[in-house]
Design goal:
By secondary structure, the chain is an alpha+beta fold. It is 35% helix and 15% strand. The chain is elongated and about 85 Å long.
Length: 235
C-alpha cells in the first residue's frame, strides 16, 4: 500500500487562493455587465449636457433663467397657513431685488396647501445613513434631515426631520453570492464573500458540513434570508 502525505497548511492555502480568485472573477463579470450600459448613457448625457448657468454671488441664484424657474429662496410668495389643506391655489411671488432673471419679476405660481414636512417622498430628498441594520426584523427606522426639492412650494421650513426606513447596501451582489454558494459553497466561499468569516472557516474545514450546510446556504441565499454580515441589502 502507498500512503499519500498531504500538507494541510499548503492545501488550505491553495483552496483559499482559488476561492479569492473566483470571487474576484465573478465580481469583475458583474461589474462589466453594469458598467457597459452606464458608460453608454454617460457618453450620451455628455453630448447633451449644457454649461451650467452663472450663479448670483449673493443669493446663489442662477442669473439667466426665467423668473418662474428660480429656487423659492430667490423669491417671496404670499402663502398663508389659513388655507385649506390639500387645496391647489395660486400664490403671488416677487423675485428678490438683487436677483437677475428673465421675464417679469412678479408672477403667480400654483402650489398645494401643506407644510413642507407633508410633501410626498418623491418631492423631497433625505440624508441616508449606512450605520443601521437593513435586514433586522422588525425593520428599523432612523431620524434624518430631509429637504424639499426646488420646484415645490410649501409652508414652513424647507428642511425638516423625518423617520426613514433603514435601507442601504454595501455593494454585495445577490447573484455573486448565489453563484459562489452553488459552485464553491462546500469550501465556504459564499460565507467568506458575505463577511461571515467564522462560519466560512467552519464550513471550509467541514467541507460544507458534508454537503448539508452547502444545500442549506444555497436555499437561504436564494430566498434572501442570508445576507451580508454588515447588515446591508443586496444590490
Amino acid at each position: 500500500m502507498h500512503c499519500l502525505h498531504v500538507n494541510i497548511r499548503r492545501a488550505i492555502f491553495i483552496i483559499l487562493s482559488i476561492i479569492v480568485n473566483n470571487i474576484s472573477i465573478i465580481q469583475m463579470i458583474d461589474n462589466k455587465a453594469e458598467t457597459k450600459p452606464a458608460s453608454q448613457n454617460k457618453n450620451n448625457s455628455d453630448n447633451d449636457e449644457q454649461p451650467p448657468p452663472p450663479i448670483d454671488s449673493i443669493l446663489h441664484c442662477p442669473s439667466n433663467l426665467d423668473c418662474k424657474d428660480l429656487h423659492p429662496q430667490c423669491m417671496t410668495c404670499n402663502m398663508t397657513p389659513s388655507c385649506k389643506y390639500g387645496e391647489v391655489q395660486n400664490a403671488t411671488c416677487n423675485v428678490n431685488s438683487k436677483v437677475e432673471c428673465r421675464g417679469r419679476k412678479i408672477f403667480e405660481k400654483s402650489w398645494m396647501c401643506r407644510y413642507c414636512y407633508q410633501t410626498e417622498p418623491w418631492e423631497h430628498t433625505c440624508d441616508l445613513k449606512a450605520s443601521c441594520n437593513s435586514v433586522a426584523s422588525p425593520r428599523i427606522n432612523y431620524t434624518t434631515n430631509c429637504t424639499v426639492k426646488s420646484d415645490i412650494l410649501c409652508l414652513g421650513n424647507r428642511t425638516f426631520k423625518k423617520n426613514v426606513l433603514c435601507n442601504w447596501t454595501g455593494g454585495y451582489r445577490w447573484t455573486t453570492a448565489l453563484i459562489l454558494s452553488i459552485t464553491l459553497g462546500g469550501f465556504g466561499a459564499d460565507r467568506f464573500y458575505l463577511g461571515h468569516w467564522q462560519e466560512g472557516i467552519g464550513k471550509l474545514f467541514s467541507f460544507g458540513g458534508l454537503g448539508v450546510w452547502t444545500i442549506i446556504d444555497v436555499i437561504l441565499i436564494s430566498l434572501h434570508y442570508l445576507g451580508p454580515a454588515d447588515g446591508s441589502l443586496y444590490i
